[in-house]
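Chapter review: from sequence to fold.
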Amino acid sequence: MRQIEHFNFNWKYKNNFDKKYIHKEYDDIDFEIINLPHSNKMLPYNNINEKDYQFESCYRKTFTPSTYFKDKLVFLCFGAVMSYCIVYVNGIHAGEHKGGYTPFKLNITEYVKFDEENCITIYVDSNERKEIPPFGYVIDYLTYGGIYREVRIEYCSEIFIENCLIKTTNVQKDKKTLSLDVYIANPQKNRDNLLIKSTIKKEDKIVRSSTEKIKLTKKTVEKYSFNYEISDIDLWDVDNPNLYHLTIELEMNEDIIDSQAYRFGFREVEFTNEGFFLNGKKIKLRGLNRHQSFPYSGYAMPKSAQYKDAEILKKELGVNTVRLSHYPQSDHFLDRCDELGILVFDEIPGWQHIGEAGDWWQITKQHVEEMIKKDWNHPSVFIWGVRINESQDCDKLYKQTNEIARRLDSTRPTGGVRCIRGSKLLEDVYTYNDFIHNGIKGPLDKRKNVTKKTVPYLITEHNGHMFPTKKFDDTAHRVEHALRHLRVLDAMYGDTEIAGSIGWCMFDYNTHKEFGSGDKICYHGVMDMFRIPKYAASVYASQQDQIPVMTVLSSMDNGDLEGSIRGDVYIFSNCNSIRMYINNTFIKEFYPRKDLFTNIPHAPFIIDDFIGNQIKENERFSEKDAETVKKLLSKINRSGGQFGLADKMVFTKIALKYKMNKKDAEDLYSKYFAGWGSASTEYKFEGLIAGKRVITQTKSQVFKPELSIEIDSDILTEEETYDTTRVVLKLKNEYGDDIIYANDVFKLSIEGEAEIIGPKMIALIGGSRAFWIKSNGKAGEVLLRIESERFGTTTKMIQIIKSK
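The token string follows.
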């Protein structure tokens, strides 16, 4: 039977490489002890020198395999190493790999000595080598360095299961078709007879079992295909992500010589000229692009952090789709997408540049195969991206990448993300980055203008660099950022020819000097780099129906706005209606503006009346004149005091009628729009669903700042590797509303078996900031201390446990 040893703790690391390091006898006492995943260099939040992580480094680890495994094959398996590595076992070259985003495994059997200490040495080159995609020219993201995903050793019999592709078809029928392509590795070219036993379960219930006889061939790897009909199956979809488990066993001479477990879902995907269909049901794809980077540690983050990003996408942002831009990503992230019901656009590494035929092309084709074989059983993956992002047409290369994808997996369409119109379509879906919306033009182009023909069409990026937005920008800028995402989504929902749109992007990210805002950050996200929302995040969050959402896109502080004119206030919510109160006085009940945004599931609310009946009830005007005055004051608030001649004449007539001077008119405006004549103005918004209040938000100009500390989890569980948790610091008022313009400084310290990722002195950015804590391989209690001049010292306890 196959035995797996996770190989992530207690590596030795050095930030340079010398040939003498490969020798087993080398004294590596001056190496640093580290755990995987590992970044070859911790980096600052911004103003990064992207050359800092581009160097050669060395990783070393010893292990002593038991003679129990003497008759087994030994494989060393890597999740990802950036970007080129050579593996030595006991000083002997055992293999190498080019490309930093896909997994690989090496057969190291002939180099291993049993019941003796063996030394694995890995040379890692994290430079941007021009023969390896995505390199060769500039790219708009950083690639970091190191062994940044997990490593394991597998001990296998001489005949073993290399992989299995699980295909589900006819899912809309009572009897669904399940097809298995089982790949059996037979490096010794044995000619034995075997049994392949397969068992399908949902939770603990067996759905189907079968046994098939096979005869091995002289091929080192042979594919064996089986088809079954299965009834009473729950389908996988975005709302009900039902998952099944397949166990495959190889039996020879009544002994089980290998076993592998896979998880999958019954579902079918299809793109047509009319859109995207999941299990025969048309679905609009609403999503965001995701980079896999984190502050300070780059790509090196374990399972819990990968899980959390998927949870943010589904539970906080309410999307049903994510694009892996621009490379295959962690198995953990995809596992959580499977569990949550998030559709995944999976894409090969690259950004605009196509290298020369030769190594670069060969590695690109290798990446297609490695990506597909890594991810083909994830029900969440609905399309293969087999073209370099935003590259020009290259028929010779892309005919080959499409052929590889279709040969390996015929159940999913291919796509290739473009930024050019009228491109040669070799894929099944025309996937296009539509950046037409500049605040005036757009918001989306028509399919016929882009594709020049009637074909399946998906928008894979929008907004992003067209309107970079920082979390600490002024209100008007942050609101416009949100409105641009809203306009695109509304246009997408209203166009039956568009299968969906995937916005750029989930969160801000570090980049090269040619891009970003001068500090090596692209502020393109609907969240900041720490996964803290900007206003634009609420556009997406408000489109789901699972939890009530209400975000008021204003602090109600007029001084933050041009001319101190508030104008209309947008609220993004999935509520049926919103009631507004000012200083506990009911003003009005508002409803979604479906007249302005006719297509999106949940149109925004526009607060365009801050007076209600107050002028009629509190002032000396007649009912008719009160309504006129209300309209005039509202127009002033909306226009910044710009009156037309007709409005001036109306106002003058009323002023004369009620013997009002200029000061009286100014006081009237100030009372109803700039403070109501009191020390402070409190605005309360109540969101209602089916007539029941489900959410409340309060705004006030006077408040007491409070420090909020939110921990994703106060229990860290070490399994295959170390664990992490995110700690979010926010300055809030007593109503729970974020105080955006705050930059308080905090000192962080920790006691116990853990460490803080990144600096120990941090300042809030736009009123909030986060950091991550990681365990170091030992169980125990951890005391986190957060110190501030304003808020004193706060402590939090975190528990670290080791999973058995």
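Two observations follow directly from the output. The two ends are 20 Å apart (CA to CA). The chain is about 15% helix and 35% strand.
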